[in-house]
Amino acid sequence: MKTNNLKITFNAPVTLGFVFLSFAVLAAGALTRGMSTQMLFMTWHSSLLNPLTWLRFFTHVLGHAGWQHYVGNMSYILLLGPMLEEKYGSEKILEVIGVTALITGVVNYILFPASALCGASGVVFAFILLTSFTNVRYGEIPLTFILVALVFIGQQVAEGLFLSDNISQFTHILGGIVGAVTGYALSGNKRTHR
């Protein structure tokens, strides 16, 4: 008699690791009343001589302002990350996260010295734009990429111009640019010819 045993697989180690680490950071932030988040997982204008400033350029993507912020970002990460990790590999996805974190952290530090930054929104937008490149053929620009860029990036530009909130639309735009550039570069290596 044949039995079908189902098992749970750790199918996307970078994506799942990112989600679990972000949750641990959120829990630590709740236990320390935000002190651990501010000290280690939020980038703000501190001295460049402080080694934690450099660390926070990368770790700010793991910090979140609260449960709703975390759930909003992780929903997209869990939806898009496994597909991207399967397509491009865990190492490339880790690079996308790291590059997005560094660029958004440094740009926020330089251009917005009075604003702190935390959260994975830049990574989410990088993943969204990167996803639109998953089936690129040589010499083509996918209509899905154009539409995604118009909808998501256009929305962020409009909100940045007309809304005054605590959301960093500039970070979303930068993340989208990282995803688009990465997607184009990676698709250049793997484009299929007709």
Morphology: globular
CATH topology title: Rhomboid-like fold
- CATH superfamily membership: Rhomboid-like
Determine Rg (CA atoms, Å): 18 Å
Distance between the termini: 47 Å
Q: Strand fraction band?
A: under 5%
Main beta sheet, described?
A: none
Estimate the mean pLDDT confidence. 85
Domain count, please report it.
1
Helix content: 55-70%
Number of H- or I-type helical stretches: 8
CATH architecture: Up-down Bundle
Report the top-level CATH class: Mainly Alpha
Low-confidence stretches: none
What class would the helix/strand composition place it in?
A: mainly alpha
Instruction: Give helix and strand order, one letter per element, not per position.
Output: HHHHHHHH
Total beta strands: 0
Protein architecture, described:
The chain has 194 residues and is mostly helical. It has one domain (13-190): Rhomboid-like (Rhomboid-like fold), CATH 1.20.1540. It is built from 8 helices and no strands. It has helices at 13-31, 35-40, 51-59, 67-88, 90-111, 121-131, 143-162, 169-190. Helix 5 crosses helix 6. The longest helix has 22 residues, at 67-88. It is globular and about 50 Å long. The protein starts with 12 loop residues before the first helix and ends with a helix. The mean pLDDT is 85.
